Amino acid sequence: MSQKIEIFDTTLRDGEQVPGCQLSTDEKIIVARELEALGVDVIEAGFPISSPGDFLSVIEISKAVKDPVVCALTRAKKDDIDVAAEALRYAKRGRIHTGIGSSDVHIKHKFNSTREKILEQGVWAVEYAKSKGVQVEFFAEDSGRADLAFLAQMVEAVIAAGADVVNIPDTTGYCLPHLYGKRIAYLYENVKNIHKATISVHCHNDLGLATANTISGLMNGARQAEVTINGIGERAGNTSLEEVAMIVQVHKDLNLHTNIKSEKLYGISTLISDLMRMPVQPNKAIVGANAFAHSSGIHQDGFLKNAENYEIINPSDVGVPSSSIVLTARSGRAALKHRLELLGYQPSKTDLDVLYDNFLVVADEKKNVNDEDLVALVANTPILV
Ligand code: KIV
Ligand code: ZN
Q1: Distance 331 CA to ligand 2 centre (A)
Q2: What is the CA radius of gyration of the chain?
Q3: Based on the domain organization, do 88 and 198 belong to the same domain?
Q4: Structural domain count of the chain
Q5: By the number of CB atoms within 10 A of the CB, which of 113, 185, 191, 350 ranks highest?
Q6: How far is the CA of 238 from the centre of ligand 2 (A)?
Q7: Is residue 127 a part of any domain in this protein?
Q8: ipTM, interface predicted TM-score of the complex
């Protein structure tokens, strides 16, 4: 039976940490409503103690949405947890996401502390957050570089303290997919009562492996994925929501599913890109401008014979109206003929040969040949006029 993956969206927290991407409370409410319509299970709405604006945004998002759990980030500190609980007071279902570093690098160089003290503080934070009457998620920051036995000890201790969800972040995007997956498997094999909590994966993209690591974590038992729209986030970004949702949808063999309404993906990607003034790279999987564009002759010919030759996703499944055939100097006769037919021309084989030679001259000059260029091309080709 297919198992549900909870989608935890952190566009408004980890995503919004990107310099220049800050949103106003009103803009965040618009995004939160769209995330709700998209079908995410959890919205991480902000880090309330970090600024009055973030505090207010968590309050207003809590009022604005009803289905998703609203989550607020804290450090493992009393003031952070008090302020987060206050900001979540209107949430139908609220969650405090608290945690602390788990790698020796963080323990030594960030906290100047010891494993024992860090463990104690983490357990205390979970117990204290739990006393606020909300769900509690614990993050073991920099889990990707933590000593595995210590990480297991930490996960076991916070579950015993009442954590509902335990997040295993690859904070620095360091892990390789098979090794990140092995970390999750190790926790399932070695942590007592691990099934009392949901294990969550939160991966960064410093080596371009965030999505691969997330999928590896899910294949090894994690049941929540922490993601952002367009993969925005600190440095090279977070795991992108649209990639995880579509991998799970395309690969039925994984036996996993999400509640994401995939046909809304392109719309929300555009919304985030516009509001955050953060362009989506053209070759971005799923939502990039070229994700369903075919430009080389061999591909265009195959695509025109049957879209399945070169597409594993129907563009309308992710809200892109249609695939496109881009005419360039690499295009073949089949694509040129197709576009001419769409414009109402019916060139004979001989006409097409002549047109194609002229087309290549224009394409070498112009890079992309558009419909206006084609109309001019036909007008200037005596054989057809
Ligand atoms: O990357 C990370 O470790 C985080 C935590 C705060 C969850 O964003
Ligand atoms: Zn993060």
Answers
A1: 42
A2: 25
A3: yes
A4: 2
A5: 191
A6: 7
A7: yes
A8: 0.99
